[in-house]
Amino acid sequence: MTRKPLSSAAAALIAGVILLSGCSAGSKSESSGTAAETTTTAAETTAEPLQRRIREYDPEKPVIALTFDDGPNLVTTPQVLDVLEKYDAAGSFFLIGSNISDETGEVVKRAYSMGCDIENHSLTHANFTTMTVGDFTAEVEETDRKIEDLTGEVPKFFRAPYLAANTDMFENIDKCFISGFGCNDWDDSVSVEQRIDGVLSQAADGAVILLHDAQGNQKTVEALDTIIPELQKQGYQLVTISQLFEAKGRDPMEEIYKYRQISSVIV
Questions:
Q1: 212 included as an active-site residue
Q2: What distance in Å separates the CA atoms of residue 195 and residue 182, rounded to the nearest whole number?
Q3: Each residue of 124-143: pLDDT tens digit?
Q4: 149 is catalytic
Q5: How far is CA 156 from the centre of its chain?
Q6: What are phi and psi of 81, to 5 degrees?
Q7: How many other C-beta atoms lie within 10 A of the C-beta of residue 240?
Q8: Which of these is catalytic: 70, 212, 225, 251?
Q9: What's residue 48's pLDDT?
Q10: pTM, entire model
Q11: What residue ranges do the domains of the chain occupy?
């Protein structure tokens, strides 16, 4: 579905709403044998439906969404999931489609089964503002396809690579664009303590926190072991991005959220 053309007034707002907490570059065979054998093989290769945990929360209490960019991978993403599981917290993962393989797909399934949201962060982490509409929509569609193959759900949210967005993207990518309050955790020179302080200082009801589970981002894994229990101690419920909107009674595709990147759900 194509969105309505952007008004001149709305266009003027775009530069002001895009935050500077961006992220780094991300990196049939023939059957034989008896009918019974054929039937057995088919049964053995039929995948079980993916079961997802239903996470409960109280919409009357403060909520925050922890979001993670640039996965999936076989090292850091599982470590982030371990910390989330340790504190019974939810997260939302914005995936780079080219990082999805048979092996990392199992990590994605684990996240989804835990009740986490799986969302779209492009196919190649290229700057969409330098691409044609056909090229960047193809990236979004292919990443959607890969995620749907794993989870059975099409992502509803999109985070632009580098948080670089323009009118063509807003009009042709029919998803809610998400930004977030970040702590530059893509930069290895940012210490664990700086990451902790950066997140906690920006914590607020309805806030989206932008972090990265890129391969080797060990400092963020370590920081989460302090960030998550401290947010919980302060009374925040760590919910998914979709639950964040739900808790505030907002539809992420409503007019108020078009042509901008959301860092906080408006109450």
A1: yes
A2: 9
A3: 999 999 999 999 999 999 99
A4: no
A5: 10
A6: -60, -35
A7: 24
A8: 212
A9: 67
A10: 0.84
A11: 65-257
